[in-house]
Design goal:
3-stranded antiparallel beta sheet, mainly beta, 145 residues, single chain
């Protein structure tokens, strides 16, 4: 437009070398298993008139490796994943294992904690949290001072 050249397209040998080094490192297949470490698992929270519904995607996790707690208005979901595969043949080219412990806490108040129900089916955990006071609604706009 005005003869400007984008920074990445400049012909700077040092910059090209650095870009290739970083691109090669961060796009390496070695880092693929670590790609989702910040978000251990996805969680959806819905509210209906009578209850809150939490759905968590936990692929590769066994039902016995999931722990649920509701304490001080926090629902805590803990899960352990262990996907190690033993291969007798030592001529493999690549071997990947995934193991980790994950935990998410969600603030949910106005819950009858003695009637919380949970189901785990096909890698999806569904937790139903019945409301104590069904007439209590969330307020709309918050005034800014």
């Amino acid at each position: 437009m005005f003869g400007l050249v984008p920074f990445r397209n400049r012909n700077l040998p040092a910059r090209d070398y650095f870009d290739q080094l970083m691109h090669g490192f961060f796009n390496d297949d070695f880092l693929v298993p670590f790609g989702n470490m910040g978000n251990a698992f996805r969680v959806d929270l819905r509210e209906t008139e009578n209850e809150y519904i939490v759905e968590a995607d936990l692929p590769g996790v066994k039902k016995g490796d999931i722990t649920l707690q509701y304490e001080n208005q926090y629902l805590t979901i803990s899960a352990k994943r262990d996907e190690t595969q033993e291969v007798k043949d030592e001529s493999y080219v690549r071997r990947e294992r995934r193991y980790g412990q994950f935990q998410r806490s969600i603030y949910v108040d106005n819950v009858m904690d003695d009637k919380i129900d949970a189901k785990f089916d096909d890698g999806v955990l569904k937790v139903t949290l019945p409301k104590k006071d069904k007439s209590k609604k969330r307020q709309g706009n918050i005034q800014i001072h």
